[in-house]
Amino acid sequence: MYLELGDIFVLAVIATFAMFWWNSQTVRQLATRHAKARCKELDLQFLDGGISLNFKSIARSPSGSLVIRRSCTFEFSSTGEDRYQGEVLMLGNHLQEIRIPPHMLP
């Protein structure tokens, strides 16, 4: 069996998408951990147990390599009756910033 150039290209594209998906799942898990830890630190309730992951841009890491910058949104509550939306910014697999908007204190 011989592989033609077209077959190799298709396999490379499939492998690239698989690696991107796998990396996105890892980033989602890390962002969820960071968001839950910040909510616990601020005595907030992390809602729905999930996070939505959005591609923002390609940027340079502090080491100089190209990485994907992602924005992950999550919902939290301070009193149990309201909902607020926070944001976790990830640079590659590293936490860049967690944004918690102003909210009511319990």
SSE map:
Blueprint: H1 5-41, E1 45-60, E2 66-77, E3 84-91, E4 94-99
Explained architecture:
The N and C termini lie far apart (68 Å). By secondary structure, this protein is α+β, with helices and mostly antiparallel strands. The chain has one domain. It contains one helix and four strands; from the N terminus they run H-E-E-E-E.
What attributes does this structure have?
106 residues, alpha+beta, 4 strands, 40% strand
Helix content estimate: 25-40%
Share of β-strand residues: 35-45%
The biggest sheet, with number of strands, parallel, antiparallel or mixed sense and barrel status, is: 4 strands, antiparallel
Show unreliable segments.
none
Q: How many distinct helices?
A: 1
Order of helices and strands: HEEEE
Number of strands: 4
- Structural class by helix and strand composition: alpha+beta
In short:
By secondary structure, the chain is α+β, with helices and mostly antiparallel strands. The chain has one helix at residues 5-41, and strands spanning 45-60, 66-77, 84-91, 94-99.
